[in-house]
Design brief:
Elements: E1 2-10, H1 16-32, E2 36-42, E3 45-52, H2 54-66, E4 70-80, H3 104-119, H4 125-139
Helix pairs in contact: 3-4
C-alpha cells in the first residue's frame, strides 16, 4: 500500500461545479483502480491524500500536476504504509449546507478534519499535521 499527499492552489476561476466534476471523475477513476483517499478544500487550497498501488498513484499525480483547475502543486509526502485510512471511500469530501454560510471557511476546514479524525484508527504523520493546522485555525 502506498500513500501520496499533495497540496495545490485553486485557479482563480474555479467554481463549485468544477469541484463537483473533480469529485465525480476522481471517484470513478479511483473505484476502477482501487484508490482511496480524501480531498480537503479550504481558502482556495486543496490537500489530497491518495492511497493505492504505487505506480498507479505516481501516474495519477503526474496527471494531477497538469490539471489547469489548480497550480503550485507541491508533493508533501509519499511513502509505503501498512493499511488504508479510507478503506471505504473512493474520495472523501465534506460539503457544507447553505445554513453554514457564517464563517464558512473556518467551518469547512474544521469539519473536514473532524470527518478525517472519525475515519482514522491509527494516526499518521499527515493526520497529526492536519490536526495541528486545524487547531491553529481555531485558536485564531
Amino acid at each position: 500500500m502506498y500513500e501520496l499527499i499533495y497540496r495545490s492552489v485553486a485557479s482563480p476561476n474555479l467554481h463549485v461545479a468544477d469541484i463537483d466534476k473533480i469529485l465525480e471523475t476522481s471517484r470513478d477513476f479511483n473505484s476502477k483502480n482501487e484508490i482511496t483517499g480524501c480531498l480537503l478544500f479550504h481558502n482556495n487550497e486543496f490537500i489530497q491524500i491518495l492511497e493505492g498501488e504505487k505506480t498507479i498513484l505516481q501516474a495519477l499525480y503526474a496527471n494531477i500536476k497538469k490539471d489547469e483547475r489548480h497550480f503550485n502543486v507541491i508533493l508533501l509526502t509519499e511513502s509505503e504504509k501498512d493499511e488504508r485510512i479510507f478503506p471505504n471511500w473512493s474520495m472523501a469530501y465534506h460539503k457544507l449546507s447553505t445554513k453554514d454560510n457564517v464563517n464558512i471557511d473556518k467551518l469547512l476546514f474544521t469539519n473536514n478534519f473532524i470527518t478525517l479524525s472519525e475515519l482514522i484508527d491509527k494516526p499518521t504523520h499527515a493526520s497529526r499535521l492536519f490536526w495541528y493546522m486545524a487547531k491553529q485555525l481555531l485558536e485564531q
